[in-house]
Amino acid sequence: MNGYAVVDVEATGRSPWRHRVVEVAVVQLDAGLRTEREFTTLVDPAGPVGPTHVHGIAQDDVEGAPRFRQIAPRLLELLAGRVLVGHHVTCDRAFLEREFARIGVALPPVPLLCTMRIARRMLPEAGGFGLSACVEAAGLGWFPAHTALGDAQATVELLRHCRRTGCPDVRLPAPPAAPVVPWPRLGPARSAGSRGEAPLLRRVAPLGPWPAGVEGPRALIGSAGYE
Questions:
Q1: Which range has the worst mean pLDDT, 81-85, 120-124, 165-169, 185-189?
Q2: Cβ(165)–Cβ(172) below 8 Å
Q3: Closest by alpha carbon to 43, among 26, 63, 27, 28?
Q4: 120-152: per-residue pLDDT in tens?
Q5: Residue 87 three-state SS
Q6: Alpha-helical runs (H) found in 103-201
Q7: Runs of H (alpha helix) within the chain
Q8: Coil, helix or strand for 201?
Q9: What Rg, from alpha-carbon coordinates, does the chain have?
Q10: Are 43 and 67 in contact (CB under 8 A)?
Q11: Contact 10/91 with Cβ under 8 angstroms?
């Protein structure tokens, strides 16, 4: 294993089978939980964006955003050989799995690490175990909730907090004994009328008082998604 891939998706609804990803973020961490790379983009769901009052994404915001197929090759590279981490990670995994299935790609089984499950043991005083409640209980400060990169970065900080406070579960799972499943590869998708790769679209997120040493999302639109 090469480290962790901390993921978060915003979607048009609750069902991976009926709804679509509208924003995705991945933060790659090494085995010591040091950030290696970040990726984020809005995604055109090819239909209504769903509950804007929850995720803050309006229909106009996804105009010009890539379709999932256009970012799929890059996502596969970011996830390959890593432990998948998320707050309620099975939900994020299910949305990614269904999006890949729609384009004919089977996402291989990978080890999962769920910060929600860890927080139930580490933060029993939390008023709930949603990400915002866990971040507050850990004293990690404000973050732009329900933005994919904001939630992924907050999950990273929660993971680091749990490691600092001695949670034995926060370690790289051992590689499975079964033979390694070949990781799928996709050729780059091209944008319509262009010879280059499809441009990504990063939404502007409000900045706020992140704790010392933590950076909030930078306000960039049309960035390459990497930092």
A1: 165-169
A2: no
A3: 63
A4: 888 888 888 999 999 999 999 888 888 999 999
A5: coil
A6: 115-122, 131-137, 148-164
A7: 52-55, 68-79, 89-102, 115-122, 131-137, 148-164
A8: coil
A9: 17
A10: yes
A11: no
